[in-house]
Write a structure and sequence with these properties.
8 helices, mainly alpha
């Protein structure tokens, strides 16, 4: 019996740690790397998108002119142009928003090793107290506190984590939901698979690349080469249009 309890406690501890790791991988590390990448290359990416939109417009206008269609049909074609470039415009807007979010993410406070470890320990205690899968009686207030704890953890706000921990310390281990061992093992498998899929679906190894100035410059040069090609295409199309008028 005592052995069974120890096994269950070990599984519960593992499950709580996996919840914390999922936050680290999906909601902390990945957004950070995405933000860093966006801020490194966003200016060139925006220029490339704008040129692509301009070229799309020019090609369509040339097609309309060469087809010798009537004005009303030209109007329909213009609507077609707008529809076709709408996705590209949305990408420009989305990229602008990514830059805004990325600047916020990159301003997240840095912690030293001791603070990071302390943050993890405190957050795991809060998981035990607040996580919807672990509390027996969930409430709107607990859900809000859990989201507040998650946000504080993912933004390295150790002050908020400490306040929540101190406030809720007396509730630790009270009212925790009990699973049978099989169900708990299943939950551990599910969250482990979720973490694995996240690691397979996102190039986390790019972190090392983004610390390499040679890699950064080579990547920028690749985008610049595409931009130069687009500029050349745009110039040719403009000259062609001028010759038609």
């Amino acid at each position: 019996m005592e052995s069974t309890i120890r096994d269950y406690d070990s599984l519960l501890t593992l499950y709580i740690d996996l919840i914390r790791k999922r936050e680290d991988v999906i909601y902390k590390k990945q957004p950070y790397l995405e933000s860093k990448y966006v801020l490194l290359f966003s200016e060139l990416m925006q220029e490339e998108l704008v040129l692509t939109i301009n070229i799309k417009k020019l090609k369509r206008k040339i097609q309309v002119y060469l087809s010798d269609l009537k004005t009303n049909v030209d109007f329909e074609n213009e609507k077609t142009i707008n529809r076709e470039i709408s996705i590209l415009k949305e990408q420009v807007i989305y990229l602008d928003e990514l830059v805004r979010i990325s600047e916020i993410n990159m301003n997240i406070e840095s912690l030293n090793i001791e603070e990071k470890e302390n943050l993890k320990i405190l957050f795991k205690n809060l998981i035990r107290i607040l996580h919807p899968d672990l509390v027996t009686k969930s409430s709107e207030n607990k859900r809000k506190l859990w989201e507040k704890a998650r946000d504080a953890y993912n933004t390295n706000n150790i002050q908020i984590i400490r306040i929540l921990s101190d406030t809720l310390a007396m509730k630790e281990n009270k009212g925790i939901r009990e699973y049978n061992q099989e169900d708990l093992e299943q939950k551990i498998t599910e969250i482990s698979n979720e973490i694995k899929e996240a690691k397979l679906g996102f190039p986390f190894n790019i972190e090392k690349d983004m610390e390499d100035m040679n890699w950064i410059e080579e990547s920028r040069e690749e985008i610049r080469e595409r931009i130069d090609k687009l500029k050349d295409d745009e110039k040719k199309l403009i000259n062609f249009m001028s010759g038609l008028s």
